[in-house]
Specification:
Length: 249
């Protein structure tokens, strides 16, 4: 029988390619060993592997020392999340290590540590919709996140109507603010919408790794075979294809 010799204190590789930024990180216990994030106009297929190689080289970590992988599996850019998930699956299979999918929206919400806060991450889903959800940060240790609105693709009007049923300010974060910040400021009552500053809107791989660390405690043998993209909505190409096919009948 093969013995699992991975250390108890796993080094977890975090990967995020679901948004415009490309981010990789190494986390061990509560320590962030290294993180690299690029937010430039190159495709993730061009950036991810060179960035990962640089991360390992600069941190002095060999691939064989990795104990697990956590990858942002969506929602987000369909192409981007497929690149991240397929890379994570390939590495996990080659290294024979666990791999877990992390919801991009939860990773975005983790950037807000305020006890009792309501946190609403936003990603631009196009077609006048946002990928979004709503979380409440617990007011007591361990200050975990409670899901109030499950991840979904919603119009901004639908979202605003729902979050205003909660009688406290909402902290909005995520790249979707680049598209929807002005609308939120216009349609939300004064002091009810708190917009995160631009540097805190990016999904960082360190937060993906942190979420993955918690998931691995629940399922330490998570297999790459269960690692799949979380789209929330059908890919645009499939939708358009079905519409064209319907027009031919």
């Amino acid at each position: 029988m093969k013995t699992d010799r991975r250390p108890i204190n796993l080094i977890i590789l975090g990967i995020d390619t679901t948004t415009l930024s490309c981010s990789v990180a190494l986390l061990q216990d509560e320590s962030l060993l290294a993180e690299m994030t690029l937010n430039i106009k190159k495709t993730h297929s061009e950036r991810l592997m060179p960035l990962l190689d640089q991360l390992l080289t600069e941190s002095g970590i060999e691939r064989e020392q990795l104990g697990a992988i956590a990858v942002a599996a969506g929602p987000g850019s369909f192409t981007g999340l497929r690149i991240g998930v397929s890379t994570a699956r390939g590495l996990a299979q080659a290294l024979n290590i666990p791999a877990v999918p992390v919801c991009t929206l939860i990773a975005l919400a983790e950037v807000v540590p305020t006890p009792g806060a309501l946190i609403c991450p936003l990603l631009d889903a196009r077609r006048n919709q946002a990928y979004t959800s709503l979380y409440r940060r617990s007011a007591e240790p361990p200050f975990s996140l409670e899901t109030l609105i499950a991840p979904a693709a919603l119009s901004l009007d639908q979202l605003i109507e729902t979050v205003l049923t909660y009688d406290q300010p909402i902290i909005f974060t995520g790249e979707g603010l680049q598209t929807y910040a002005a609308t939120l400021a216009e349609k939300m009552p004064a002091k009810r919408a708190v917009l995160a500053p631009a540097p805190f809107r990016l999904c960082k791989a360190a937060l993906v790794a942190l979420c993955g660390q918690r998931l691995l405690k629940e399922n330490p043998q998570a297999s790459y075979l269960q690692l799949l993209p979380q789209y929330l909505r059908r890919p645009e190409a499939e939708r358009l294809f079905d519409e064209r096919q319907g027009g031919l009948t």
